């Protein structure tokens, strides 16, 4: 049968963002940047819209669920605000849907006016030293994912048996989280939403000693003051900071994190798992036993030198070995390339001018494609930092699209495509089933929730 395509002149058109022709936005990645963007869009006065939230996980909230430490319940409360956005009738959730696997970017673009990429930074940076793949070494990305019930990391079985000596490499807030969670008393962990397998493993074993290594000095550490203060105030930990490692004016200077370190250095040490902060020290090699298991680290003392306005660590001749059965590298995250999506592999981000994604080769903007959050600017800042970032992306998107004329006839529906392909979509109601199930199981144990931490149990609880 001959299908006659309507002439351009016969197609009814209307301004995007009106009741006749609502704006259609797909947001890929439902961490803080994705939800702040959706929240901003839903609050735009007079705008008619539909938002499709797409996430490869069956659960929303990204790092709020899978990254924030279990003992930071207050930070997680932001999820309550995000939940109101997810439940908005103009918003649909497509969990367990992976861009590049279940559908292509082109297919998604055909089904909306704009795609906003907020996929975060889920890969880890490598240290690049010999022995990094020995049994007993893992990245913070994996370790944090494991204790937070991220289904990609459910199989991790960190070497916690006995009383291991642990080295945590890195001087950022993630390194502090890892050192703290490893050392928390079982009773504290028991009242959190730490993943069940991690609760079991961490409660049974207490490290003998945790070393937190910074390659540069205390003045260059990336810790924030609040996190250092918290480390010092956590019951069951004994934090050791050597006064000689701090700048002379640490206690009185402008830098709040340094002042907190000086307070820790001046304090008598208490009972509890000893956490030693050691600066100007790098791991130059991980050393294994005959079975390929980590047994020690080779350390090197660094001198600091200023190069092009930046203080850099230069290894000296002073090296030594320290016994160590578990090492966690917390040296930063990296964005992950999505097939078909422009990517700057060197920086691990989606290349963009502001929020407008551009082709890496030509620099030309890709119409209708935007980005925000860690995948745009790299893994820096706290959860709230993503709010202005997401708002800027929404502002660019609305400037480009609202009021432009487009065919009134709706584009093909994303739900229909995924259903044809047999994708087990977790919609908002299905996520709410997971949520309710976890909270109910948690209440029985006096905990905020008992997380489902594997793909199978998550999809089962979702009922999809
Ligand atoms: P980060 O703050 O960038 O810290 C990374 C650390 O790794 C730095 O100390 C860096 O040292 C070190 N490093 C990098 N490469 C290294 C190498 N080859 N050898 C030794 N050390 C190396 O990253 P993050 O800790 O992953 O945190 C990511 C973001 O999340 C940060 O903005 C952080 O504040 C935020 N966050 C916030 C919270 C909270 O507010 N509670 C909790 C967790 C994370 P150099 O400085 O020498 O490069």
Helix-strand category: alpha/beta
The rounded distance between the terminal residues' Cα atoms is 39 Å
At the first level of CATH, the class of the largest domain is Alpha Beta
The rough form would be described as: globular
What low-confidence regions span 5 or more consecutive residues with pLDDT below 50? none
List the helices and strands and how they pair.
Blueprint: E1 13-15, E2 23-28, H1 32-42, E3 49-55, H2 63-66, H3 73-76, H4 78-86, E4 91-95, H5 105-110, E5 114-117, E6 123-124, E7 137-139, H6 140-147, E8 165-169, H7 173-183, H8 186-190, H9 196-204, E9 209-213, H10 225-233, E10 237-241, H11 256-266, E11 273-278, E12 281-288, E13 294-307, E14 310-323, E15 326-329, E16 333-334, E17 352-353, E18 356-358, E19 365-371, H12 374-377, H13 386-401, E20 405-407, H14 414-420, H15 428-444, H16 455-462
Helix pairs in contact: 1-13, 10-11, 15-16
Bound molecules: NADP nicotinamide-adenine-dinucleotide phosphate.
NADP nicotinamide-adenine-dinucleotide phosphate is lined by residues 127, 169-175, 177, 214-216, 220, 222, 224, 227, 282, 330-333, 379-382.
């Amino acid at each position: 049968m001959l299908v006659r395509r309507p002439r351009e002149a016969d197609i009814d058109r209307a301004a995007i963002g009106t009741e006749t022709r609502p704006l259609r936005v797909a947001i890929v990645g439902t961490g803080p940047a994705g939800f702040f963007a959706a929240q901003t869009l839903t609050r735009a006065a007079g705008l008619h819209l539909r938002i499709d939230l797409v996430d490869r996980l069956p659960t929303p909230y990204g790092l709020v669920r899978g990254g924030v430490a279990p003992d930071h319940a207050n930070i997680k409360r932001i999820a309550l605000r995000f939940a109101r956005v997810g439940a908005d009738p103009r918003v649909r959730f497509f969990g367990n849907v992976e861009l590049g696997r279940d559908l292509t970017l082109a297919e998604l673009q055909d089904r909306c006016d704009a795609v906003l990429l907020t996929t975060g930074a889920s890969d880890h940076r490598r240290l690049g030293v010999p022995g990094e793949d020995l049994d007993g070494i893992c990245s913070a990305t994996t370790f944090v994912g494991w204790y937070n019930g991220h289904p990609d990391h459910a199989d991790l079985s960190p070497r916690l048996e006995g009383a291991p000596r642990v080295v945590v490499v890195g001087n950022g807030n993630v390194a502090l989280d890892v050192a703290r969670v490893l050392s928390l008393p079982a009773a504290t962990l028991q009242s959190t939403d730490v993943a069940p397998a991690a609760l079991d493993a961490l409660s049974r074993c207490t490290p003998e000693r945790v070393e937190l290594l910074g390659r540069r000095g205390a003045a260059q550490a990336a810790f924030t003051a609040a996190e250092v203060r918290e480390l010092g105030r956590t019951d069951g930990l004994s934090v050791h900071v050597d006064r000689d490692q701090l700048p002379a004016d640490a206690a009185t200077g402008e830098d709040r994190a340094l002042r907190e370190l000086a307070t820790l250095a001046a304090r008598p040490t208490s009972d509890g798992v000893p956490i030693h902060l050691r600066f100007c020290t790098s791991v130059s090699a991980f050393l294994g036993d005959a079975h390929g298991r980590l047994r020690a680290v080779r350390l090197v003392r660094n001198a600091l030198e200023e190069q092009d306005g930046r203080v850099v660590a230069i290894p000296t001749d002073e090296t030594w070995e320290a016994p160590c059965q578990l090492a966690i590298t917390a040296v930063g995250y990296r964005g992950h390339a999505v097939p078909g999506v422009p990517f700057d592999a060197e920086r691990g981000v989606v290349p963009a001018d502001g929020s407008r994604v551009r082709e890496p080769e030509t620099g030309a903007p890709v119409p209708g494609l935007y980005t925000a959050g860690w995948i745009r600017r790299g893994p820096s800042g706290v959860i709230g930092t993503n709010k202005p970032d997401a708002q800027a992306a929404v502002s660019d998107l609305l400037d480009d699209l609202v009021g432009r004329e487009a065919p009134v006839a709706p584009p093909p529906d994303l739900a229909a495509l995924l259903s044809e392909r047999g994708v087990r979509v977790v919609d908002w109601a299905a996520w709410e089933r997971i949520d309710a199930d976890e909270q109910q199981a948690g209440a029985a144990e006096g905990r905020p929730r008992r997380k489902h931490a594997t793909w199978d149990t998550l999809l089962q609880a979702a009922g999809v």
